Amino acid sequence: MSPDGVEARRDDDFTEPGPIAKLLLAAFAWLDERYRIRNYADSIQHFYHQLNFELPRTHTEKYNLRVIWYWYPLYALGSIVFLAFIFATISGILLTFYYIPSTSSVMMEGVGEATQAWQSVALIMTEMPLGFMIRAVHFWSAMVMVSAVVLHMARVYFTQAYKKPRELNWLLGVVLFLLTLGLGYTGYILPWSQLSFWAGRIGLEMSLSTPILGKWLAGLLFGGVELGQETVTRMYVLHVILLPLLTFGASIAHVAIVWWQGIAEPH
Amino acid sequence: MSLKALTQEYVEEAERMDNQRRDEKSLRPVEGFPFWPHEMVRNIVIVCFFTAALLYLAAFMPYFLEGPANPAGQPEVILPDWYLLWSYGLLKLGNDFQLLNGPEGAWVGEWWHVWDRQWWTPWDMGPSTAIVQLPIIGPMNAKLMGLIGLHTPLLIPLFLIPFLDRGKAQRPQEQPFTTSVGVFALGVLTMASVYSINNVIYNRWPVTATKFGQDLIGPFFQFLQWDLLSWMTVLLPLTLAVLTYVGIKTWRERMMDEGDRVFKLNRNYYRVR
Predict the structure, then answer these.
(1) Is the peptide bond before B62 cis (omega within 30 degrees of 0)?
(2) Which residues of A246-262 are buried (b: 16+ CB within 10 A; e: fewer)?
(3) N or C: which end of chain A has fewer CB within 10 A?
(4) Among all residues of chain B, which has the CA nearest to that of A255?
(5) What does the alpha-carbon distance between residue A215 and residue A254 come to, in Å, rounded to a whole number?
(6) Residues A149, A88 contacting (CB under 8 angstroms)
(7) Nearest Cα to A170, choosing from A152, A192, A196?
(8) Comparing A64 with B199, which gets the higher pLDDT?
(9) Which letter, b or e, does each residue of A112-129 get, where b requires 16 or more Cβ atoms within 10 Å of its Cβ?
(10) Would you put residue B126 in left (φ > 0), alpha (ψ -120 to 50) or beta?
(11) What pLDDT sits at residue B136?
(12) CB B189 within 8 A of CB B84
C-alpha cells in the first residue's frame, strides 16, 4: 500500500450503476459496435490515470504550506496570453467581415484621398454597430498579449523554469514570442494609415538589407521593393491565416507539454 | 544488438529503478506540480479579472485611427508599434554608433564592407556586374550592422539558454550571474526602445546630444565619441547588471534565509507512487 492513500480512491467493490452511468454505457456500446472505440477508451483511461494518480502532489500538499504564495499571479501570465489570443481571434473574425485589403484609391469627404483599406477601417469605427468597441477589444487584447508574453518570458527566465525536463518547451515559447511579434507587426500594417505605411517602410528596408537574400525576402514578405497592393495582400494573409494558425497550433503544444510535465516551482 | 532490443533494455532498466525506489521508499527529484486542476483553478480567478479589465479598457479607451497613408509625405517621427521599438532602436544604434565600420576614412579596414547592402546588391544582378561594380561602391551604410550585428546577439542566445544554463537551482537569488544577464537583456531592450526616438529626445533635452570622450580617448578611436544618450544606452544596462550581481552576492544569504522553510524546499523530493 502506498503511504499517500492513493489506493483509497480506487473502489474495488462493485456497486449497482446509476441511471446516468447506464445511459452512458449504452451510448458507449452503441458507438463501440460501429467504430470500435474501446481501444481509444483504454488509452484515455490510461491517460486519465497518469494525470490524476502518477503526477506529483500539489505544491501546498507537498510542503504543508498554510500561506498563499505571493508569486502566484506571475504564474497566471501564460493563461492570460492564451485568453488574449482567443479574444483577439474572435474580435478579429468580426473585423474580417468588414475590412477590405485593398489599396485602390478612394476620395473621402473631409479626408481627401485615401485607400479602400483605410476607408473600410474608418467605416468600422464610425458606421458598424459597436465597431469601435470590437476594434478596441482587438487592439487591447493584442497589447495585453504582447506584454503578457514578455512578462511570462521574464518570469520563466528568472525562475529558471527552462531547466532540465523543459528545454524544448522553452524553444517552443521563443517561437511563440516571435510569432506574437509577427502578428503584431502584420496587424499594424493593415489599416494602411500613415503610421502603418512608414512602419512598413522600416520592415521593407530591413528585409532589403539582408545579405544575398535581400530582394528575394522583400519580394516574399512585402511583394516587391515598393509598398503597395501586394504588401497589403501578403500582410492580410499572414495576419489572418498563416500566423494565427501557427500560433494556435504552437500554443496548444506548449500548454499540452506544461500539462503533461507539471509546472516548475521555484519557491 | 537491434534498436528494438536496446529500447526494450532501457525501458526495463528504467522500470526496475522505479520499482526499486518504490520498494526502498527512496525519493526522486521534484519535477513540477499539476497544471490541472491545481494551477488552472487559480488562473481562472485571475483570468476573470483580466476579462473585466479588457472590456473596461475597450469601452472607455477605444483605439484611434491615424490619417490615411501618404507615401509622398514622410512624417517627422516614424515608429513601429511599441513592442518593436527595441528592434528599430537597434537598427539606429547600428547606424549611429558605427561600431565596426566607422565614418568615412576611419581606421577600419575595407573588408568590413561585407556588412553593407551596397556590397551585396551587385551580386543579385549576377557576378559579371558585380565584378565591374564592386570597386566603385562608396562608403558603407551600416544598416546591416544593426540588422545582423545587433539582433543576433540578442536572439540567438534565447534559443540556447536552456542548453547553456544547467543545474538544479530555480530561484533568481541562487544564480546571480544568470539573473544579472537577464537584467542586462531587459535593460538593453528598454534602452534600445528609448534610443529609437533619439531625435525627439535630442530636441526635448539638448544635453543628451553632448559628445563625450574626445579628450579621454583621443582622435584615434573616433568611433567611440558618442553622445550622452548613446553612452547611457550602453552603460545603464551594464550598471544595472553589475548592481544586481553585486547585490545578490552581498545579500544572498539573507535573501534565502527565511527560517528553514523556503530555502530547504528545493531539497525535498517526491516519493514515487
Answers:
(1) no
(2) bbeeebeebbebbbebb
(3) N
(4) B35
(5) 34
(6) no
(7) A152
(8) B199
(9) eebbbbbbbbbebbeebe
(10) left
(11) 37
(12) no
| Cross-chain CB nearest to A4 (options B36, B158, B273) | B273
Contact A157 B163 (CB under 8 A): no
- Collapsed DSSP state (helix, strand, coil) of residue B273: coil
Q: B140 to chain A: nearest residue by CA?
A: A209
B156–chain A nearest CA distance, Å: 10
C-alpha cell at A80: 492570460
- Where do the structural domains in chain B lie, given as residue ranges? 3-63, 82-100+142-257, 111-139
Domain boundaries, chain A: 75-261
- Contact between B27 and A255 under an 8 Å Cβ cutoff? The reply is no
- Number of inter-chain CB pairs under 8 A, A vs B: 242
Task: Output the tens digit of pLDDT for each of chain B's 273 residues.
Answer: 788 898 989 989 988 887 787 777 665 555 666 777 677 877 888 889 989 999 999 999 989 888 898 888 888 888 888 999 998 888 888 766 554 444 443 333 344 444 455 555 545 555 554 444 443 333 344 556 666 667 888 889 999 999 998 877 777 888 889 999 999 999 999 999 999 888 889 999 988 888 766 665 555 555 556 788 888 898 999 999 999 999 998 887 776 665 544 444 444 433 333
Interface of A with B in 25-54 (CB under 8 A): 51, 53-54
For residue A35, how many other CB atoms are within 10 A of its CB?
A: 10
- Residue range A75-261, CATH number: 1.20.810.10
- Contact (CB<8Å) A202/B266: no
Q: What is the 3-state secondary structure (H, E, C) of A124-190?
A: HHHCCCCHHHHHHHHHHHHHHHHHHHHHHHHHHHHCCCCCHHHHHHHHHHHHHHHHHHHHHHHHHHC
Q: Do A83 and B50 touch (CB under 8 A)?
A: yes
Instruction: Report the gap between the CA of A177 and the closest CA in chain B (Å).
Output: 11
User: Model's pTM, two decimal places?
Assistant: 0.80
Q: Which residue of B has its CA nearest to A119?
A: B68
Nearest CA in chain A to B118: A209
CA-CA distance, B36 to A50, in Å (whole number)? 12
Instruction: Measure CA of the first residue to CA of the last residue in chain B; give whole Å.
Output: 33
- Residues sharing a CB contact under 8 Å with residue A247, sequence separation 6 or more, in sequence order: A85, A176, A179, A180, A183
Neighbours of A224 (CB within 10 A): 14
Chain centroid to CA B14:
39
- Of A152, A174, A165, A262, which is closest to residue B168 (Cα–Cα)? A165
Largest CA distance in chain A: 81
CA-to-CA distance for B265 and A71, rounded, in angstroms?
Answer: 15
CA distance A204 to B229: 27
Residue of B28, B45, B47, B54 to mutate, interface with A, max A Cβ within 10 Å:
B54
Q: Do A163 and B166 touch (CB under 8 A)?
A: yes
